[in-house]
Structures are given as structure tokens and as C-alpha cells.
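Notes to self after the Tuesday call (sharing in case useful).
The group wants a holo model before anyone commits to mutagenesis around the pocket. I volunteered. Ligand is zinc ion. Logging inputs and output together so the record is complete.
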Amino acid sequence: MESTKRASGTTLTTGSTVPESGIYSVSHPKHNVPAEVTLVRNQTFPRCSRCDQPVFFELVRSAPALVNVHPSTFTVALYELPDLSINEEGAS
Ligand SMILES: [Zn+2]
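Result:
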């Protein structure tokens, strides 16, 4: 079964390689993660900091110019998506 090659509707999830630099919408209903993130090509899609469930991403706007920025200036490398709904510390 090799029917995973599709021009559109590609599923981008945690652990996948970012195919294109740009702004990605984040889909992860379980936790209140950021709605959009900026990712650079060849990075790995970040995971949720709160669980091991996969996070889904969808390209909103490609921004190839991101790769032209000085590497020293553009050092946004997300590995985890914070849960924005966490207001209490040490609640367990
Ligand atoms: Zn989560």
C-alpha cells in the first residue's frame, strides 16, 4: 500500500520534516498550543510539551525568504509547543 503520495492534503505531524519554510497552523485539540508557528525547511515539526499525542500542521503561508535571513539572527527552533492554558505552577 503506497498510496500516501498526494499533492494536497499531506499530513504533517510531529516528527515529520518541514517541507517548506513558512507559517504553519497547529492542530492539537487536546492542549492549548499556539495556533500558528513559523518553521524553517528541514526542521522537524515540534511536539506537544504536554503529551505524546501527535500534533498536526498545515501550511498557511510559505515564506522561502526565511532561509535567506542570517542564520545567527533567525534561530527559532521549536522542539516543543507550550501549552498556553497553563496558569498554575506545580499543579499535579
Ligand atoms: Zn498535547
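Two things stood out.
Residues 3-90 form one domain.
Residues 47 and 80 are 5 Å apart (CA to CA).
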